[in-house]
Prior knowledge:
InterPro entries: ATPase_NBD. This is Hsp70 protein. The chain has helices at 2-10, 46-74, 88-91, 93-104, 120-137; strands at 20-23, 41-44, 82-84, 111-113, 140-141, 145-148, 152-153, 164-166, 173-175, 180-183, 188-189, 194-203, 209-217, 232-240, 250-254, 264-277, 281-288, 291-299. The longest helix has 29 residues, at 46-74. 23% of the residues lie in helices and 32% in strands. By secondary structure, the chain is an alpha+beta fold. A hairpin with a 2-residue loop joins β17 (281-288) and β18. Strands 12, 15, 16, 17 and 18 form a 5-stranded antiparallel beta sheet that branches. A 4-stranded antiparallel beta sheet has the order 10-6-13-14, with no helix packed on it. The radius of gyration is 33 Å and the shape is elongated. The protein contains 5 helices and 18 strands. The model has no long low-confidence stretch (mean pLDDT 81).
Amino acid sequence: MLSFDDKKRNFGSNNLQDENLIEHGIRALSPDSNNGIDWEHITLSHEDMKSIFDPVVDTILALIENVSWEARQNKPDKPLVAIVLVGGFGESNYLSKRLNTWARAQDPKLFVISPSSNNSWAAIAKGAVCYGLQGIVQRRILPCHWGVELASRYNKEIHDPAYNYEDEWNGNLYNSDTIKWFAKMGDVSDGENRTKVPYSYSTYDRYTKHSLSLRTCRYDEPPWSRRDSRALHAPVITIDLAALPSSAFSQKQVGGGFFGFGSRTCYRANFTLEMVVGSATFKFEIRYNDVLLATEHVDSKFVGESN
């Protein structure tokens, strides 16, 4: 059936609908002109070949469509861009043509690659191994504590009252000389888990910029004071409040005398600081209602800077 293998491989290589003359090699097979059989050959029309191919190709396309859908669902942040045909899949012109038609109809469009190299299977195997190792690489032991400069409610037992202030939104007494530590040195973290720090920000100017200063520490017990030399400096993340819709803010009138004369409008919004561990960097994000506002990437070996 070597002749049929050749016909299978070349079927669909052009748009012609030629008949296919195939050696059958069966001596006892009697000629049958109605079915295109003579002593040496079987003649198959283009439609005959399609009837052989289509059920198999339809099944393959359904499988690919299902796998691609699962890939998009499992890794929405890593878009599917190409399909690689190797081995017997890469040898079929008809499958390649049908698959290309399907791929071009996708949104976004996919590319179909049929490598001719004999090492294509090895390349696929190496890629699968690297993909499998990716999750292992991204599981990292944090080399230091990670924190952020956020004010805390005043505690007379530990806070210096020189750094106290009254929150304009609720009138509570806060202390600005504090650090909120959210990731512990020695913890194992990976890209599947996000460390989240929710916080609120109040301002009289909703069109200003707002920044968060990250801090690190390599001591077993990180300090609560920003002034402590053990708390090292890390990047600052800044967002533009003007980019937020007015619906993002709660607002109320603060201060003023009788009948509210002289009062000011105070705005308040809720945000989340998020930390994501990657293969080579730590990513810090500020989000409002799950909408990304700002991102800062830090090398995974970074442990802070002293000023």
